[in-house]
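Annotators were shown the component list below and the corresponding predicted structure, then asked to write short factual statements about the assembly.
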Amino acid sequence: MNRRAEQQQPKGYEKAETQWHDDYRRDIGDAQPVHNRSGVPIEPLYGPSTDPGAAHLEHLGLPGQLPYTRGIYPTMHRGQTWSQRQLIGHGTPAEYNERVLKMIDAGTTAISLIPCNSVYRGNDCDEIPLPLLGTCGTVVNTAEHMDHALSQVDIAAISTAMNDPSPFTLLSFVLNVADRRAVPWQQISGTSNQSDYLSHFIANHMFFRLSLEGARRVLLDHIAFCRERVPNWNPLSVVGQHMQQAGATPAQAMGFTLCSALQYGRDCLQRGLDPDDFLPRFTFFFDISMSLFEEVAKFRAGRRLWARLTLEQLGATTDRARRFKFHGQTSGADLTRQQPLNNIARVTTQAIAGILGGLQSLHTDAFDEVINVPNEDPARIAVATQNILREEAGLCDVIDPLGGSWYVENLTDEMEKTIVAVIDTVENAGGMYAAAESGLVQRMIGESALAWQDRIDTGDQKIVGVNCYRVPEEKDNHAVPPTVRPAKDKMQAHVDQLRRFKTDRSQAAVQQSLTALARAANSTDDNVFARVVEATAAGVTHGEVIACLRQELGFGQPLIVD
Amino acid sequence: MLLDALMAGDRRALGRAITLAETGGDRAAELGRQIREHTGNARVIGVTGPPGAGKSTLTNRLIGALRAGGQSVAVLAVDPSSPISGGAILGDRLRMTSHTDDDDVFIRSLAARGHLGGLTASTPAVIDILDAGGYQQVILETVGTGQSEVEVGEIADIRVVVCTPGMGDDIQAMKAGLFEIADILVVNKSDQDGVDQTVRHLESMLSLRGPEHTRAVIVPTTATKGDGIDDLLNAIDRCSTILNPNERRRDRTRRLLAGRAAELLREHLLRHDSERLDTACRAYENGERSLEQSARDLLKLEYP
Amino acid sequence: MNTQTPYRVLVTKVGLDGHDRGSRIVAAYLRDAGMEVVYTPPWQSVDQVVRLANDEDVDLVGVSSLSTDHLIVPDLMQALRKAALEHVPVVVGGIVPDTEHALLFDAGVSAIFGPGTARDTIVNTVRQLAAAARDALENPFT
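Structure shown to annotators:
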């Protein structure tokens, strides 16, 4: 396998290849050229003549060896398979706790918390219409709420992923809870998901909370704070998922994400942080589309590029600092409302792509996600999909099983070139921060989204059940269970409880903490996140922290370019 | 009835009346005539500049500053229409949302609808409606594409042209258009590098302008942070004191009438008097008359 | 007169969600079909949408919703009526569970476009509804 293929071609191979080519042309004619979603032209056949040769092996590396094309660990899924991290969150903290304890009983070792949309928007629940509360996530506004949500959960042992944009109030609540339970912060482990404010400004405005500049400041404070005081916490997850969901091609999503990571890395360097210390705590989060081979190549190329960029651009010296750890989520944008059970097949395909691409953790979408907030049965099937792939399909038997495929190696190289072109565009525009601020990235994503939609509208891209293989409406959709909404009385009680909490707490302590927070925001040397942690310990709520920082650091508006 | 409602400050009437003005026709003309005596009070501030200069953010800040001074503010944000479909996405509102709850702020987006000047044909009529509706300040925000600036110059009382540091080449390109009409040159994003250089560059360009332009001032701002907005407002106020409201109104009407007459004349020549136009053309092509002379020949003729 | 001027349509998102890929694509569809689209960032309140519909004097309001924000569309319908804008049709696009379609239709919503709705269906429905709304306003002075 290590020998150059051309030299090993049996006699007559060339003739045979010419013969095939003629046969192919005769049968298919000059058919439309095929391009993948990233615009890379795809040949009908790859073979020895497209083999990149022995020099290519240097760009591959073995698993666990630089440049990590074949995987960042020596054992990959043969050793420890990916972690199964399903996003959960619904209703009140008590309802969340009930569900989490069930999951822990069933053997889960890592949990996640999705807060309610009102939390994302930076509001407390007493400011929001009741019907919107708790429909898509848990309503957590105070350290008390977090204490309830994690009741009987051993936070020293379990890894918790928080969907927690700047200014990271959920982690703040967790640290407050740790203090109450006398758990040292060194034992707290997990990840601040949704800490990548650039992706919110650009592509997923759901998580957008503070002005671009303010978010930049608070993220750096957060990273510095965690490195010093919560060493087992990953303070940054760089997100490509939002951009791909918003319409970026896979190559664009990878390119933009690497640019964001570079931006954060440079910001950390400027802050005086050590790349060998902070880079191992950077994690990535990607979308996995239906374009199976393209996704595999995207991840392989991404690993290789990050290994290079960390060295050349950020000055990493340890191998560990150059590893590209990523979580994958199957693409909701590829799912269809039509014939929703078909989505199980789609999610399976996407999950296979992510697994073959060498991911570290995986979320599989429920088939009804395009219709509902996932119901219990569809959510169970999503988990089962992962279990089936891990236990039955033999996907974990071999590390990087597509490595050495003429097609996949070629595609990995081509994707890398396409990704590098994206990176060059952004870097030439002054880096990701400047490119986002000017709207360049948004414009590129918007154009890709429209081009993709155009392919579907014209039928060039077939989507089963949408523009082909349709069934009559009455035969459609029966499999979807009805939507369950949070119990209104429980939510109302939760809101009333927060109102009482706000009246009963020490107003002096609240005022004092908010003053300190505002002062930190206007200083250049105080750590804003440290003041957030103190404030929430003193009873300041999520909404109050954000209102204060919006006042001091600016609210801003995400830049949407038409 | 619409007139009464409009004068009474009815928002619904205002929204409908602008649509009527945009649609045109006899009723629009009639409304325009009826409200005339109630107009002339609003100050029209034109804000223009190249895409990406931060006009919307600046406008948003300007609204805030004017509101803080107790003034009611209307904004007309003009976007181009697609030449192919005739449709438009009116997205200038994107970052103007912090004043949407304020009863004394009225924001309306207009599509240029193929009007070549970059503004819309109905803009003067719409401004009159807002004026009659009691809005004291009207901000007219347009993208400076090299066409609209002349019209903004015709319509606005005070013309604010926005640029950013490092737009050196763009400023050169603006020279003939945007730059010439400016009463106030805003250098936005002044927290970026190169602001001093840009200001110096603008100053040297200003020094080359004729005496009729000498009052133009340069104001650095950082609209995202609100820095320099008070300076901008002061500059606008100083500009306003140069003309009293009646003169200002008369000035605007004169420019409007002259502009409209020129448009009619052009149309007439091209469509209904091609013979005379051709004669003048030939005289120019033969080298008998200069371009200027040929044009003057045409103007000496009488038109109905 | 109705055929002379383009239809004006508001494309917006109410409530808390921020996913706007759908609203951007629909806005482009309608623009390319010759309409003037007033486009807003997400997170508009019901009152803000009413004000926009009034000030921009639109012929139709389109609300995009991905995660349950459609539940406050009935409030929007009521607020539009209160502001004497009941003639302005409202359409909702995005993820609305089948079991909640009735809630929206009962509140007066004219159409719901789920994922995968064909471009032509969206454009034609919007055009018909906007035309009908304009015709219903016999006197532009009301």
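Statements collected:
1. DSSP finds twelve helices and eight strands in chain B.
2. The beta strands of chain B are 43-49, 73-79, 88-90, 105-111, 137-143, 158-163, 184-187, 217-220.
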